[in-house]
């Protein structure tokens, strides 16, 4: 397996128009474009000009910036959902505490009514026993 590359003048010395015609994809996104597949009969290094490398680098920089921007906005959205959900949790917690207190008060009132009814029935029972 011979991995020798063509002389530099063959890669960089060709006119740009010839290189564009020979390259499979002008905007290919990987460095694998530089190396050929072992089953491919093409040369190991595809001829590219400095301008193409600069363009590819600029495209990658733009893509990187775009991805960073996307991450930023996704993190913002997650943070907003977290804040909204935490506010909902606090609101629900307060509502439940209020409901617990009102139910405690209602239970206490009903317990007092039951105690009063028990005393009334005991007094009536005692009063009826004394009359008999």
TrEMBL record:
Domain of life: Eukaryota
A cellular component term, taken from the record's GO annotations: pericentriolar material
Chain residue ranges for the region called Disordered: 1-45
UniProt KW keywords: Coiled coil, Cytoplasm
InterPro entries: CDK5RAP2, Cnn_1N
Domain Centrosomin N-terminal motif: 49-119
Protein's UniProt keywords contain Hydrolase: no
Pfam families the record matches: Cnn_1N (PF07989)
PANTHER family per the UniProt record, alphabetical: CDK5 REGULATORY SUBUNIT-ASSOCIATED PROTEIN 2
Protein name: Centrosomin N-terminal motif 1 domain-containing protein
Taxonomic source organism: Oryzias javanicus (Javanese ricefish)
